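About this split. The held-out portion is used to measure sequence recovery: a designer receives only the structure tokens and must propose an amino acid at every position. Recovery is the fraction of positions where the proposal matches the reference. Here is one held-out target exactly as it appears in the evaluation file.
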């Protein structure tokens, strides 16, 4: 695993988002200086995020990942998602019913 090899000197593993940040930048062939010019975030700061020396605030994470065409989203996990699934399914069925009714009316009127 990349984090185990590159960051073996650290006591704690580097967060996967920080590793992804570095991997995206390197894959794009962008230096820290060029990335600074692109995002306005100082290269020394981005480097400290990539190494796990600093924890990036959400606004910086969003800006960094947006520069590579990514959007950060929250995805429910664990038991909360399981409890909410029936409600989401009911909502989807209601939406499907509304669409079906709308389509039926459009077909009746010829629109």
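Reference sequence for scoring:
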């Amino acid at each position: 695993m990349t984090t185990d090899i590159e960051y073996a000197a650290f006591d704690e593993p580097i967060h996967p988002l920080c590793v992804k940040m570095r991997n995206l930048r390197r894959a794009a062939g962008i230096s820290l200086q060029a990335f600074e010019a692109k995002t306005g975030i100082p290269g020394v700061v981005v480097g400290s995020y990539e190494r796990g020396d600093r924890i990036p605030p959400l606004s910086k994470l969003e800006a960094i990942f947006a520069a590579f065409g990514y959007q950060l989203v929250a995805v429910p996990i664990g038991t909360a998602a399981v409890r909410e699934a029936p409600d989401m399914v009911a909502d989807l069925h209601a939406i499907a019913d509304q669409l079906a009714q709308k389509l039926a009316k459009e077909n009746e009127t010829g629109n």
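Annotator remark: Residues 78-109 form the longest helix (32 residues).
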